[in-house]
Specification:
There is one protein chain. With 263 residues, the protein is an alpha+beta fold. The protein has eight helices and ten strands. Helices cover 28% and strands 21% of the residues. Helix 7 packs across helix 8 (192-212). The protein starts with a helix and ends in a 6-residue tail after the last strand. GO terms for molecular function: class I DNA-(apurinic or apyrimidinic site) endonuclease activity; damaged DNA binding; oxidized pyrimidine nucleobase lesion DNA N-glycosylase activity; zinc ion binding.
């Protein structure tokens, strides 16, 4: 399932295709959204915001399209008027003179006024986004030590979007390996040095994934700048301590870790 970095890169692709261009066509599958089709023609998409795995498509008339891909939703960029052959069900089409962005299969879609946006239940519940450049490690540390989160095991906490939006399973695995912590720990048990390391890793690793995953350094051929150290590497040697990486299940998700150096 895509995590915050993948959702943000998808939003970047959508913005590159249609941002700032007048919409020539808007189409929605759901009857409750049909009235907005005519209202959006001639308007522009000003920017596309991510809140964890939710996308907020902001229009120049101050409306915002809220969409959450959940398990099966996916956005596509196509040429204007192109109708791709697919078994997926089209939910949204937003088109400019040369490109269109299409949302397939998602069911959690709403059009919001500024007031509704501020009061939206999911957006009220979700924590700050790890890819928000305004979010600092000190603020993350404060959240870790708050009464709400300080006694939660990291196995579940690092999947909870109310703690930090945009985290997910592969990030949970890589963050805990980076700081050498086992998943059963809680923030209340850590030293200040461990808290500092974890607070930074909770931001640094998602941002590294967003900025570099799938890209390689120029003139080098050793693979992507972001690479998994433990995720999907069960049975292989840990590059830090030489121990054997193990796989288990935590919070209903596969979890990879090194017993030799994650304590």
């Amino acid at each position: 399932m895509p995590e915050g970095p993948e959702i943000r890169r998808a939003a970047d692709s959508l913005e590159a295709a249609v941002k700032g261009k007048p919409l020539t066509r808007a189409w929605f599958a759901f009857p409750e959204l049909k009235a907005f089709e005519s209202q959006l023609v001639g308007e522009r998409i000003t920017h596309i915001e991510t809140r964890g795995k939710a996308l907020l498509t902001h229009f120049s008339n101050n409306l915002t399209l809220y969409s959450h891909n959940q398990l099966y939703g996916v956005w596509r960029v196509v040429k204007a008027e192109e109708e791709p052959q697919t078994t997926r069900i089209l939910r949204v089409r937003l088109q400019t003179v040369d490109k269109a962005i299409l949302l397939y299969s998602a069911s959690d879609i709403e059009m919001l006024t500024p007031e509704q946006l501020l009061a939206h239940p999911f957006l009220q519940r979700v924590g700050p986004d790890v890819l928000d450049v305004r979010l600092t490690a000190n603020e993350v540390k404060t959240r870790l030590l708050s009464a709400k989160f300080r006694n939660r095991q990291f196995s579940g906490l690092l999947l909870d979007q109310a703690f930090l939006a945009g985290l997910g399973n592969y990030l949970r695995v890589e963050i805990l390996w980076e700081v050498g912590l086992a998943a059963q720990h809680k923030a209340s048990q850590l030293t200040d040095e461990q808290l500092e390391a974890l607070s930074h890793a909770l931001l640094d690793i998602p941002r590294l994934s967003y900025n570099t995953r799938g890209r390689v350094e120029e003139n080098k051929h050793h693979g992507a700048l972001f690479r998994f150290k433990v995720f999907h590497r069960a049975g292989k040697k840990c590059e830090r301590c030489g121990g054997v990486i193990e796989k288990t299940t935590l919070s209903s998700r596969p979890f990879y870790w090194c017993p030799g150096c994650q304590r």
